[in-house]
Specification:
415 residues; alpha+beta; D-Amino Acid Oxidase, Chain A, domain 2; eight-stranded mixed β-sheet; 11 helices; globular; FAD-dep_OxRdtase; oxidoreductase; N-methylglutamate dehydrogenase subunit A; Rhodanese-like_dom; oxidoreductase activity
Length: 415
């Protein structure tokens, strides 16, 4: 529980906190120590850790829309660390640990809810892969178990144990699975950063990156030119387009990713339930709505539109898992755009351009990495380019050296 909430509950009067608001818009300065392109969760988290833990506050966050209005606002808020590789598990385990303390860190409630995630296995091959994932997760401190159908039925009594004539043979039960309010995470980081002197410039689009003699020295925006000592790119969904401004070709393909939500109903589902065979995952929010998500669209596109064919196939699979949901009404549908690498792992760290740092390629797991990404990117910048060990495996040059970190199949609903 955030300390401010406890203090607030014990007060006789309830004053309004004026400092809870973000600073009013200001003019861009001519020079900053650090320019961060992208005002989503990763961008504001990096600024926060730079300001609070490294004393670097002459920072401009440049967001072409509004705070957290891109993929941060378009995800389904899942937090987990049950990945396939040792590199992935270690990285996301650190993120889960940071998420658990964020409300107290911010003195601001991010509505973190420890729920657990259940992933269903319908084949012997999937059971074998789950057994391997369980051991990797346990080795690095994650709480993950392989459970049988009886245990699954006890966890989720309303689940159809034979969806689409594919019997549920076992389940990967990830006890650390959780959710948080995605916009609250962005607000908390932004509030903490701006209170320490960081400038957040919304409606400020970067239209070009200034590179001189192989070194990033500034950016051009729709509000003028800004010079800086270094640039951090954190623009999920548009990573290839922005990197191209600096002359960098990214090994990324971008796809739409859709989700939808029903009318609210009484609570019946605490864990997050997914099936990669059905390309579907289901969760119930604190408001009672049922959230459905699945695999990304099968073709590249820079567009956040929704489609009828995805809605039909995704809901058909969700109804296979929970037949009574056929009677619910769909309330809304939305989409984000995801940057996918060939090994389904992110690109973090140095780039071919000096003092231009990359935070890209997050696919469908950008939100769950927000705290640890901000922390490690801040360490990278504050050290002058010394790459932290935790993110060293995710450097872009791994694609030239055949050192891929293969997380294919680690998604809640396989792509």
């Amino acid at each position: 529980m955030p300390f401010s909430l406890l203090k607030y509950g014990l007060k006789n009067d309830y004053p309004f906190e004026q400092d809870a608001d973000l600073p009013s818009p200001s003019e861009l300065k001519k020079h900053y120590d650090v320019v961060i392109i992208g005002g989503g969760g990763h961008g504001v988290a990096t600024a926060y850790y730079l300001a609070k833990y490294h004393g670097i506050t002459n920072i401009a966050i440049l967001e072409k829309g509004y705070l957290g209005g891109g993929n941060t606002a378009r995800n389904t808020a899942v937090i987990r660390s049950n990945y396939l590789t040792s590199e992935g598990v270690k990285f996301y385990k650190e993120s889960v640990d940071l998420f658990q303390g964020l409300s107290n860190e911010f003195d601001f409630n991010i509505m973190y809810s420890s729920r657990g995630q259940l992933t269903l296995a319908h084949t012997d091959a999937t059971v074998r892969s789950f057994r391997q994932r369980t051991e990797v997760n346990k080795h690095f401190g994650g709480r993950t178990e392989l459970i049988d159908p009886q245990q699954i039925k006890e966890l989720v009594p309303t689940l159809n144990m034979n969806p689409a004539d594919m019997p549920v043979l076992a389940g990967l039960w990830h006890i650390d699975g959780a959710t948080a309010r995605h916009d609250a995470v962005a607000w908390g980081y932004a509030k903490g950063a701006t209170q320490r002197g960081v400038e957040l410039h919304q409606l400020t689009e970067v239209v070009d990156v200034i590179v001189e003699k192989g070194r990033a020295t500034g950016v051009k925006t729709n509000r003028g030119t800004v010079h800086c000592d270094c640039v951090i790119q954190a623009v999920a969904g548009h990573s290839s387009l922005v990197a191209a401004m600096a002359g960098i070709k990214m090994p990324i393909t971008t796809y739409p990713l859709q989700a939808m939500v029903t009318q609210p109903v009484k609570p019946f589902l605490d864990p997050l339930v997914s099936s990669s065979a059905l390309h579907c995952y289901v969760q119930q929010t604190g408001r009672g709505e049922i959230v459905f998500g699945g695999g990304s669209d099968p073709y590249p596109l820079y567009n956040t539109r929704s489609t009828l064919d995805l809605k039909e196939s995704l809901l058909a699979h969700a109804v296979e898992m929970f037949p009574f949901m056929a009677n619910l009404k769909l309330m809304r549908q939305w989409a984000g755009i995801t940057d996918m690498t060939s090994d389904y792992s992110p690109i973090m760290g140095l780039s071919p351009v000096e003092n231009y740092y990359l935070d890209a390629g997050w696919g469908t797991w950008g939100f769950k990495s927000t705290p640890i990404c901000g922390k490690t990117m801040a360490e990278l910048v504050a050290s002058g380019g010394k790459v932290p060990d935790l993110i060293a495996p995710f450097s872009m040059d791994r694609f030239d050296e055949f050192r891929q970190v293969n997380e294919m199949g680690a998604t809640a609903a396989s792509h």
